[in-house]
Design brief:
249 residues, mainly alpha
């Protein structure tokens, strides 16, 4: 209470402040606002993304704790486009360096999923086919090292290849890899049958029929409902393939 009464005694009401002092304060405030409005927006260049540190240095610097180092590197990479307060579009980044960063991060933390998720769902979604292909290649290459945990990202890569790049042969290449290398029971049925649907889109009905028939005969499909659905699809495919043959000269 003593402190409050002292401060209350020392305070002066605004009406007692000379008008010229208030005018100077108002002028200073107006000058600050004008300066902030006229100041150019901070900029960041996409070319400013540096090359990642060498792997040997990172392992030494991590002091036996590579996972936190990997997470910090991922945070740096993801936040780079917001450096200096301005957004650098992903499509403008140097993708060779982005891939180099992602490779370093995966090497430090092979169990981490976020680098491949970012590659498939963020960096591969840019409207630049060349950069999309570069990122899809990264996903495919790293998928082959650990298919049973990384299959979701290659599955999305196949989706990007099919629907965005309109590159059915590339989508089929990824689908074949998924069918061949993904053996975990956690993977849904569509992972095994993705190539079949792509062959249909390519109008390769005979090849699709052979593939689906082989899958049904392999005994890999154990769910009765899934089996019935695929058998019905096979009959439809056989009818369409027969009609296609008749229509050919």
């Amino acid at each position: 209470m003593a402190f409050r009464s002292k401060f209350a005694r020392d305070e002066r009401p605004v009406k007692d402040v000379p008008a010229w002092v208030l005018a100077l304060l108002a002028l200073a405030l107006a000058g600050q606002i004008a300066a902030s409005l006229l100041r150019p927006a901070p900029s960041a260049s996409a070319q400013d993304l540096p090359a990642p540190p060498p792997q040997a240095f990172l392992r030494l610097a991590s002091l036996g704790e590579p996972i936190p180092t990997a997470k910090l590197m991922m945070l740096y990479l993801q936040s780079f486009d917001y450096q200096a307060g301005s957004r650098v579009p992903y499509r403008d980044l140097d993708y060779e360096r982005v891939v180099a960063w992602l490779d370093r991060i995966v090497d430090l933390d092979p169990a981490g999923q976020y680098p491949l998720l970012s590659a498939a769902r963020i960096y591969a979604e840019v409207p630049n086919p060349e950069k999309q292909r570069r990122m899809l290649d990264f996903v495919y290459r790293r998928y082959l090292e650990d298919p049973n945990r990384r299959w979701p990202w290659l599955a999305h890569a196949a989706y990007v290849a099919k629907h965005q790049l309109k590159d059915l042969p590339l989508a089929r290449e990824y689908a074949v890899a998924l069918q061949k290398h993904t053996t975990t029971p956690d993977a849904p049925l569509w992972v095994k049958t993705m190539e079949f649907f792509i062959l249909e889109d390519m109008d390769e009905l005979e090849a699709a029929k052979i593939l689906l028939g082989g899958l049904l005969a392999s005994g890999q499909i154990r769910d009765a409902r899934e089996m019935a659905m695929l058998e019905a699809r096979l009959k439809d495919l056989e009818a369409r393939a027969a009609a296609q043959k008749k229509g050919k000269p």
